[in-house]
Design goal:
Number of strands: 5
CATH topology: Aminopeptidase
Number of helices: 5
GO molecular function: acyltransferase activity
Distance between the termini: 40 Å
Keywords: Acyltransferase, Transferase
Enzyme class: transferase
Oligomer: single chain
CATH class: Alpha Beta
Structural class: alpha+beta
Largest sheet: 5 strands, mixed
Radius of gyration: 15 Å
Protein name: GNAT family N-acetyltransferase
Strand order of the largest sheet: 1-2-3-4-5
EC number: 2.3.1.-
Order of helices and strands: EHHEEEHEHH
Length: 145
């Protein structure tokens, strides 16, 4: 990971268009600036990584402070993937989430081995309702519709 990375959890001066471009490039989908503003504003924990003033990584966790923290939307620019930046973002969010009875993570299919390093294990009872179930099935998030 580059030594020049600056960490922040502040969103007051966050360039939401830059965050949208990061999620598109990562690739974590096409999320509008307004959607990301709402999601990050409503998240208890946020982790933003800047390199030379440029947003290169982000992640967040929805949490209630005692029972459950849900880590989601971890994204790293392709230019910084493989540098340990994603690992550092997840580690920071896990550390912030300590004290919760459970820490849950929603991962892109195929990335499970990466998250096992942090102690995450596959749940047998996880279920979801997706806005577009056919797309979720096609992308490997669901076993069946």
């Amino acid at each position: 990971m580059p030594d020049t990375v600056r960490w922040s959890d502040a969103i007051d001066d966050l360039d939401w268009d830059e965050l949208t471009a990061l999620y598109r490039a990562a690739p974590l989908g096409n999320k509008s600036p307004a959607t990301l503003r709402t999601a990050f504003s409503n998240s208890m924990y946020r982790c933003l990584a800047y390199d030379a003033g440029r947003l290169v990584g982000a992640g967040r966790a929805l949490a209630d402070g005692v029972d459950c923290s849900y880590i989601c939307d971890v994204a790293v620019l392709p230019s910084h993937q493989g540098t340990g930046l994603g690992k550092k973002i997840v580690a920071r969010l896990v550390d912030l989430s300590r004290g919760h009875k459970k820490i849950i993570l929603y991962a892109v299919p195929g990335k499970e081995p990466f998250y096992r390093r942090f102690g995450f294990v596959r749940m047998k009872t996880a279920m979801a309702i997706f806005e577009n179930p056919a797309d979720a099935l096609a992308r490997g998030y669901l076993d069946e519709v």
